[in-house]
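Shipment paperwork, digital attachment
Item: protein structure file
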Amino acid sequence: MSGAAAGRAGKIVSINISRKKGQVKTPVPEANVVAGEGIIDDAHRSFGHRQVSLLMLESIEEQAARIGDTGNIAIGPGAFAENLTTRGLNLRDIEVGDELVIGGGRVRLKISQIGKECHTRCAIYKLTGDCIMPELGVFCEVLEGGMVRVGDAIEKQ
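Attachment content:
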């Protein structure tokens, strides 16, 4: 990460998976990411162009401060059903088509969607009192797979 422009690089602070869609995800220390599919053992694997989701820890912390103790769960990594929680990489500055590399290029992701449309109040909304994924969630296709570990560098190419 040294020499990278501010906000263009960060770290993976949490990897989160769930067996069913719409659930708060559980943090795991590492995960196998498969090209064209997503994360093994995650409900969103092979979910079209939204194979892996990302959210900044900074956004989660801002939301937790806004919500306070009104939600039904603690607000932290995985609370918004994101697969990868990052710190330091400014996901607000990316665009569809941008590429991210994890672990020095071991895994490559391509941004396929920013935000998502929610037609109903999802389970995450009901648990947390609000959901930031429709505005701040980032969705990716997996170009090159491999192991992703908590602490890995993540950079915008």
